[in-house]
UniProtKB/TrEMBL annotation:
The gene is lysS. Its EC number is 2.3.3.14. This is Homocitrate synthase. Pathway: Amino-acid biosynthesis; L-lysine biosynthesis via AAA pathway; L-alpha-aminoadipate from 2-oxoglutarate: step 1/5. Belongs to the alpha-IPM synthase/homocitrate synthase family. Homocitrate synthase LYS20/LYS21 subfamily.
Length: 459
């Protein structure tokens, strides 16, 4: 199956209310998307503002220098000035859009169908004259007259567009209709299709899969599903669905949590815990019957192993817990309890129905109360810590960050705002090793002070 991802986090994603990316963030996001392995990056609409222009310029430069590999796409209205601005940036492809439903023609551009055909044909030819590859996106295609849509596609193909975006701009498609539409349009020779599916009815992923079955070869997605209103196809979910249903790996699946966190941080939009694949609860189980199942064979309640997506499985303890989960949890803690003692601990848990999560310390406390013994849990296999780092005022924080990022044991480093400049995530096998890592960080030139926080519990 031939299918790739166009990531539009930098264009559609930045259309999410409240989201703005800085130029530096744009560059970092483009690098992360390239590392992830997307086919195309829709880097923005350069005519919108000088900072977006600058961001695209930096991203195109990275592409020319061979630092990133995806095709770089610039968005444009069917307006000469917009096209010229995109062309002068030398993006690989100019994506010209135009609303072609009668609703859009009447309310937005005030053009007749015939006039619109001329405008878009001229725009596509103009972009081609500037040497770029061209995608034409039929905005609101799914509410447009089908015969007119066909006419539009043939017109822009003849004017030089080799890709056509079919935009479900208000998210009203459903899978059977999507498959039928793309199968029909795929009969038109000389073009390939992109699906751009909005999620207003929660069907963006399903519609994107159906479009691929109908012949689309590029799916538009954004990290965490960002975009206008409720957004578009979330990259992590469509990537997982393509793997599960078609055994196609469109991106490096194990890197999805990392890019999801990066976009949460830069967009300021947290994903809910029950978000598929990258949400905190995506591989976290609860009901006793489920946990008994996954302890015997995780396939009972997982569609794919969490490790595929760089995640781990776990389960929580509360009144829904059963004896198998509880026995396993105490074994993990290195504490041996008799069947009867486990029953008593379980009864205590069930008699406190409003506790949302029992932490290990709570469970040990109950077990000590029930058994009357002092219980010694096994020490943790590794020590994790967050180190907040302050830099001297005259140093370039990014240079310090880079030096810290290569110290063994440092798993992740970020530049942050507030009292400290940098945050580093550390993993060590014991406190002595942790201390050595902290010493290495403190000896980096430009680091003025550090504050260490040990991780006590992770969800
Ligand atoms: C479904 C989608 O997401 S499509 C992508 C949407 N992207 C954006 O809107 C990018 C952000 N937008 C902007 O920064 C601004 O709207 C700009 C720079 C594009 C245009 O700004 P302004 O010139 O001030 O116009 P404004 O946004 O108020 O109105 C849109 C104008 O573009 C016209 N227009 C809308 N779509 C298109 C199109 N695809 N091709 C040509 N003209 C278009 C409208 O008819 C209107 O024209 P008018 O000024 O002659 O009335
Ligand atoms: O250019 C595109 O592919 C899509 C434009 C858009 O964002 C939309 O129609 O929702
Ligand atoms: Mg859109």
């Amino acid at each position: 199956m031939k299918v790739g991802i166009l990531d539009s986090t930098l264009r559609e994603g930045e259309q999410t209310p409240g989201v703005v990316f800085t130029t530096e963030q744009r560059v970092e996001i483009a690098k992360a998307l390239s590392e992830l392995g997307v086919s195309m990056i829709e880097a923005g609409h350069p005519a919108v503002s000088p900072d977006i222009y600058e961001g695209i310029k930096r991203i195109v430069k990275l592409k020319k220098e061979g630092e990133i590999t995806p095709e770089i796409v610039g968005h444009s209205r069917a307006v000469k000035k917009d096209i010229e601005i995109a062309a002068e940036l030398e993006v690989d492809r100019i994506a010209i859009f135009y609303g072609i439903s009668d609703i859009h023609l009447k309310a937005k551009t005030g053009k007749t169908r015939e006039e619109a055909l001329n405008i878009i044909a001229e725009a596509v030819s103009y972009a081609k004259e500037h040497g770029a590859k061209v995608r034409f996106t039929a905005e609101d295609a799914t509410r447009a007259d089908l015969e007119y849509l066909t006419q539009v596609i043939k017109t822009v193909r003849d004017a030089g567009a080799d890709r056509i975006g079919i935009a479900d701009t208000v998210g009203i498609l459903y899978p059977a209709k999507t498959r039928e539409l793309f199968s029909y349009l795929s009969k038109i020779p000389g073009v390939e299709y992109d699906i751009h599916a909005h999620n207003d009815l929660g069907l963006a992923v399903a519609n994107s899969l159906a479009a691929v079955e109908g012949g689309a070869t590029i799916i538009h997605a954004t990290v965490n599903g960002l975009g206008e209103r409720v957004g578009i196809t979330p990259l992590q979910v469509i990537a997982a669905a393509l793997k599960y249903h078609f055994n196609v790996e469109v991106v490096k699946l194990e890197l999805l949590p990392k890019i999801s966190s990066l976009i949460e941080k830069y967009s300021g939009i947290p994903t809910p815990p029950n978000f598929p694949i990258t949400g905190d609860y995506a591989f976290l189980h609860k009901a006793g019957i489920h946990v008994q199942g996954i302890l015997n064979d995780p396939r009972t309640y997982e569609f794919m192993p969490p490790e595929t997506f760089g995640r781990n499985r776990d389960y929580v303890i509360d009144k829904y817990t059963g004896k198998h989960a509880l026995k396993d949890r105490f074994e993990r803690l290195g504490v041996s309890l008799s069947e009867e003692e486990l029953e008593q601990v379980l009864a205590k848990i069930k008699s406190n129905p409003n506790v949302r999560f029992y932490r290990d310390v709570d469970l040990l406390e109950i077990a000590e109360e029930v058994t009357g013994r002092v219980l010694k849990p096994r020490p943790p296999e590794k020590v994790e810590a967050l180190i907040s780092i302050k830099c001297d005022s005259n140093v370039y924080t990014t240079a310090v960050t880079r030096k810290i990022s290569v110290i063994p044991g440092v798993k992740e480093v970020m530049e942050i705002s507030g009292d400290y400049d940098i945050l580093a995530k550390i993993e060590a096998k014991d406190p002595t090793e942790l201390n050595n890592i902290i010493e290495s960080i403190r000896s980096v030139k430009g680091v003025s002070s550090t504050l260490t926080s040990l991780v006590l519990k992770k969800m």
